[in-house]
Amino acid sequence: MAGGSTEVTKEIYSVWAVPPEEVRDRIKKIMAALRSEFGGPAFEPHITVVGAISLAPEDALRRFRSACATLAPYPARVTAAARGTFFYQCVFFLIDPIPEVMEASARACNHFGFQSSTPYMPHLSLLYADISDEDKERARQRVEELDKEILGLSFQVSTLALYKTDTEDKSLESWEQVETYHLSGEK
């Protein structure tokens, strides 16, 4: 950097498991219907693997690539539609916490030096919003009406994505995909 400045700008990053295209398309329809009824910003369907962590851009990329290189594709299964207690976990699908899902998160978190204050709960968010508990319950019920066959849906996670995810930005306008990685199966 010119001028000899050694200050490194850090950003907030997250690692997401990206469902296959046909699953993404199906989930996007549910998400769009929920947004039209309850509001909230648009975002890509994903299962958070590593939560928000502050890192320099080069460090985030290095850690992301290193983590992905140790992971093989793994199965995921939707078990229920649920509602949470805060904006980023308003309405979501619970993902079966089978060993492969839990191990992928644990390995990736280890590469990032990420330690959560709460146990990992694999989930796929459908709606980010600050709405009443009554509306959350209506939205949760609406999910099951919109796609009666989605509970029990199984799919393979073979792509992870590194995203900039400034959690202060509830519009999500600053959120940006940095890189995707297709898991090879080599460990």
Can you give a write-up of this model?
- It comes from Canna indica (Indian-shot).
- InterPro entries: Cyclic-nucl_3Pdiesterase, Cyclic_Pdiesterase.
- Residues 129-156 form a coiled coil.
- The chain has helices at 21-38, 57-69, 99-112, 133-146; strands spanning 11-18, 47-55, 74-86, 89-95, 123-127, 154-157, 159-164, 176-182.
- With 187 residues, it is an alpha+beta fold.
- Strands 2-1-7-8 form a 4-stranded antiparallel beta sheet, with helices on one face. Strands 5-4-3-6 form a 4-stranded antiparallel beta sheet.
- 30% of the residues are buried.
Identify the notable features of this structure and list them briefly.
four-stranded antiparallel beta sheet, alpha+beta, 187 residues, Cyclic Phosphodiesterase, Chain: A, single chain
Give a brief rundown of this model:
The protein is 32% helix and 32% strand.
